[in-house]
Amino acid sequence: MKVVILTGLFLCFFLPAIRSNPDTSAKVVIGQITLEGNRITRPRIILRELKFNTGDTVFIQDLPDILVKSRQNVFNTGLFNVVRIDTLRDDLSPGKLNISVSVIERWYLWPIPYLEFPNRNFNAWLEEPDLSHLTWGMNVKLFNVRGRNETLTAIVYMGFNPRYGFTYQTPYLNRKQSWGIGFGAGWGFNKSLISGTTGNKDVYLSVPGEILSTQVTAYAETFFRPGLYSYHTLSVSYRYSDFADTLLNTPGYLTYPTRYYSFFSLYYKFKLDHRDVRYYPLTGYYFDVELIKTGLSGHPVNLFSVQSSFRRYDLLLDRFYWATGITLKCSWPSEQPFAFQQNLGYGRDYIRGFEYYTINGNWFVIWKNNLKFALVRPRTGSISFIRNPKFGVVPYGIFLNLFADAGFVNEPAAGDPADNPLVNRFLGGYGISVDLVTYYDIVIDLGLAMNSLGIPGIYIHFTAPI
Question: Which of the chain's termini has less CB crowding within 10 Å, N or C?
Fold first, then answer.
């Protein structure tokens, strides 16, 4: 009797564990790969993103991760609203596994309305809104030209600061799909621009009836992507600027008393991108380094900068995510013309709670942190009265964030403290925000922040903060 009881206990507690222990040596051969839904996109564009090929042998225990990362890679091309990868057993060959990749393509022709605020960001414009100084127009974008993930853009901006131009980009030229090119040109002028800072606030200059600056730009670039996750970009650009006499008399705006500036710039960027979803990542990591040489030696414009960032994203618990990112930028020489500077407060380089401020310095560091909770998990819904799946199938998610940012801007030659009082001191901000994420890379981030000056504020962003 004791033997029967002990045997039963053994079977109850240990047999399930034995059965659940996978055979790590088991393998499967990838059979036929079929694609569905790619009416415009060439098959090779999708197959380039998969971590497997027909005939590959993979361990069964590695297969789920390979399929997930392959789906993420295809989605991150930006060509599809929905990507699904399924496996099918081959009845004729038990050791084979067929793969089905089904996609819903995006709408590729977009006459995108454009609205530009004279300020460096939307939040700064909200502080002192002025509708008469808006620049408006349209970006006519044609994505996935010829089904090869090429992008053609026509730029037509009118209003206060008109600009016109075009860009073209193709990521793959060779058979291995590792080399690509891009080029573009543009022309525009400014009736208003930022001529300096006082109290870390932008000073805007406009003279009735006068054009303050005219620019002609052109660039050409090449891309190299040897694998799935590493990218190299090298570009050369040309800029011609004609500045009004008013700017020649603006202290610090230009280094040399000449109206005409004509120079070349070189740019290089290396990027390692292992994020699950690039426009709103939840897991993975990202690293980049940028080298920018503006002007050549002996030219009135002669600047050099290095910028690098690292970001990491982790799933902590069910629905809870953690993200952290650090950015460092150094630039030379110590004295730089304001016309060609871009400091803390532009683009992604800001500390939450300090959106209304511009902080100039030779180098800066930013550290951002997010604790994220999925109020609505990422999912796909449908709009019944829209039959076109390019718009009727809607991926979406809603997230609640607790955040804390910190940063420091160094300026060895800081002058009047009233001009730039936030340099050479610790800066911080914390708060709460809600993110809405949906298709076509739309992110709306609405937040309430308190900065280290003790000043609260409500802010809105249209990209993932980290």
Answer: N
